[in-house]
Every structure is written in C-alpha cells, then in structure tokens.
Amino acid sequence: MAEFLPGALRIGEPPHAESAVDQHEPGTVLLPRAQAGGLVLAEAIMSSEDIPPFDNSAMDGYAVRVADLSEGSLVLQLSSEVRAGQSAMSALRPGTCARIMTGAPVPPGCDAVVPVEWTDGWVEAGPVAIHRLPVLGQNIRRAGRDIGAGDTVFGASTVVTPPVVGMLAALGKREIRVVRRPTISVVATGDELVGDGEALKAGQIRNSNGPGLVAQSVYAGGEVVLEDVARDDADSVRAAIRRGLAADILLVAGGVSVGLHDHVRAVLESEGIEILFRGVRQRPGKPLVFGRAPRCAVFGLPGNPVSSAVCFEQYVRPAIRRFLGYPDERGLRDAVLEEDVVKRPGLHYFSRGVVRAGPGNTLTVALAGEQGSNIYSSMVRSNCIVHLPEGRDSFGRGEVVSIEPYAWTHGA
Ligand code: AMP
Ligand code: MG
After folding, report:
1. pTM of the full predicted structure?
2. Which atom of ligand 1 lies closest to the CA of 259?
3. How far apart are CA 310 and CA 351, in angstroms?
C-alpha cells in the first residue's frame, strides 16, 4: 500500500495543504516540544551540555573527605552547608564535613557523601558522628554521567514519547523538527444522510461514517482539514472531491459501489485520478477503491459504517503511520477460537471479535455477534479483527487464528 501513496510518504516532499509546514524543509515542521508528542523526529538531537552539568550529591547527608575517616575515627566537625541551586562554595577543609542536599554541587575536596541516615541526624554545629565508612565517590553523581556534551541523544526517526519530551527539556531544546502530520479530507456521500440536530425524515439516516472516520484519522495521527457531505449526484461529488484533493489523503465514504447513483468512481476517473485498484476479495469492504492524484492518496471506502471503519484500519491507518515515519506496526497475534465459524471461501474475512486472556499466556477469541456490515454495534462491542483467510470455508472451535487488536484496544 505504502508505495502507492504519492507525495504522502517521504520527508522531503513539497507541502501542498495549508498547515504549519516549514517551506524550507518540506515534509517536516518545527514544533514546541510539548506539541510534538507522538510524532517522529526529523533530525538527530545532540546535546550541547553535560547532564548533570556538575558533580552533585545523590543523597541528603554530609559531604566528606574519605581520607579523613577510618574505622577507629569516624567523627568530623561541621563546617558549612551546601543547598541545591547553590553555586560558589569553599573547599572542604581536612577533618570537616558539610551538610549537603540532594542535587547540590559537591564542594571541592569532597569525595563522598554520607547519607544522613548513617549519622545521628542533622546537627547545627560541632561534631558529626558517622556510623559507617563511605567508599570513594559514594553518592556523588558525576557531571556528564547521564548525557555528555556532544552526545547524539536521539537519532532521526525517534518517536517523541513523554520521556523524550522530558529529556528534550533537560537538554534545553524548546522546539524540535518532526515529520508533519498528513492532512486528511473526509467526504461522506449519500442523499439519505442528515447531520446532527436535524429531525430524521422518512428514508433518512444520520451520517455516522464521517464523524467515525474523522475520529479514526485523528487517532491515527492525521490532521483533518475538511469534513464534508456530498449528495448522490456527480456535481456534488465532484465539488467535494476537488476540495478534498488539497489534502495528502482523501477519504470518500459511500457511493463507490455499482449502484445507479454511485458516482464516486466515475468522478475520480473523470478528474484524472489514477485508480490503482477497485474491489478487494474481502468482507467487509469488498467495493474498496484506491487511487492517486499527483499529491493525494484517495481511498473510496464502502458506505456501510463497519466497512468504512474496517477498511480504514486495514488500509488508511497504515498509510498514515507510514507517512508519519512509524515502522510497520501491524500486530497479528495467535488466538484460540471459542466457536465454530463458517464463511464463504474466496473472500478474506475481517471479522469483529472479542479477544480475552486464555489459560497461561494464551488468548482466546469469539466473534462479537452479528457480522453484517451495517451492524455497527458489533464493531463497538469488538476489540479486535479476526483474520479468516480467503482459501477456507470453515474454522473449528479450538483452532488457532490470527487476530489484530484495534489501535484503541486497551493494552494493544
Ligand atoms: P453505499 O456504499 O453508498 O452504497 O452505502 C452502503 C450503505 O451504507 C447504505 O445503507 C448507506 O445508507 C449506508 N451509508 C452510506 N454512507 C453512510 C454514512 N455516512 N453514515 C451511515 N451510513 C452510511
Ligand atoms: Mg450511497
């Protein structure tokens, strides 16, 4: 699929949709680090500083000179205190110690920190009795121990996870260059569709695909730039498609099949969009159409809500993830069927299933009820797709099949 996505996949493609795209480095965008979560770094990140920047204490305790201490001589005189955030400090004189707090710089001469728990507690002045001998360097965190100045901290293609954002802050990097999100247009088609807030008249249904596909697009990491509804006439479909082609990815739902009023395929062709395939031996989603314009990948999704949702997860989501620079995430797992299943041979079934933990480390899966492509409730009830391959016509209870948790399935 990915190689069919013109202009939508590689860093370096010129931008063509309105978004915060940097004209100098097309395909990437400079973002405040907190807005870059879930995106992929477009360049390596080097550190210009040591982390930590200075030798500091790992404990609240007393800064000491190890040479001043021996088994028979474990008492030092308190000289001063070093707090976190403090800079200038005098060297530790022989025979003395200083109260030191976690994160405070160790004073010159200090070569170990004795935790306060190894003493009789905090004293204001006078002798400090130490219970155990520290070793050289104990509880001192050396400058550059975590990250050294000049280190490559993250390679390009690193996913910006929450700890990456934290590390960027530690490095003082406020803005980072990441692969931009693909822009996505969502066009639902159908004379029967009404929007939110309108009363249903005879023959009408509410548009569920549009909002569902918008949510799936956002969940996958896309930036939805257009949500539209077209009527079942060629001009209305054409106008919506023309608008939608300004995005990297255009999703047209409904009207892609062979009905007398299904105009999407003909309009796509008359608009010069190269159709790469139409019709896939699968259920649901058999009428799926895929084409490309010079700067846009076009998916014609069948109108039944389950078909459009399943086709999105199987074809559109991987395209979006590829655009974003993610590695292949397809996560097929083995699960033991809890029931006998009969299917039509010659079609790959993407059935809605409920996967759960079985004995030991195994998974078991049952179908999530009625599988008609208009039965949206079983889509909502399910937490995975069960793959039932084309060549078979039945599967027995106890057989191992491949399942694929949805991206939104908890723990997937
Ligand atoms: P179509 O692919 O246009 O032939 O539509 C197939 C079925 O899906 C029909 O029953 C349509 O009413 C229904 N459908 C099409 N678009 C939507 C939509 N946006 N929301 C809900 N159902 C839809
Ligand atoms: Mg229709």
Report:
1. 0.90
2. 4
3. 9
- 């008492």: which residue's tokens? 75
Name the residue at shortest CA distance from atom 5 of ligand 1.
303
| Ligand 2 centroid – CA 87 distance (Å) | 72
Ligand closest to the CA atom of residue 253: 1
Alpha carbon nearest to ligand 1 atom 17, residue: 303
CA 84 to chain centre: 36
How far is CA 99 from each of CA 96, 115, 138, 178, 382, rounded to the nearest angstrom? 10, 10, 15, 45, 60
Q: At what angle do helices 209-220 and 317-324 cross, to 10 degrees?
A: 30
- For 289, the token pair is 């159409």
Encode pLDDT of 79-133 as tens digits.
999 999 999 789 999 999 999 999 999 999 999 999 999 999 999 999 999 999 9
Distance in angstroms (rounded) separating the CA atoms of residues 220 and 251: 14
Partnered with residue 119 across adjacent β-strands are 130
Ligand 1: which residues within 6 Å by Cβ?
188, 190, 192-193, 205, 207-210, 253-255, 257, 259, 302-305
* 332 CA → ligand 1 middle, Å: 29
Q: Using omega within 30 degrees of 0 as the cis cutoff, is the peptide bond preceding 52 cis?
A: yes
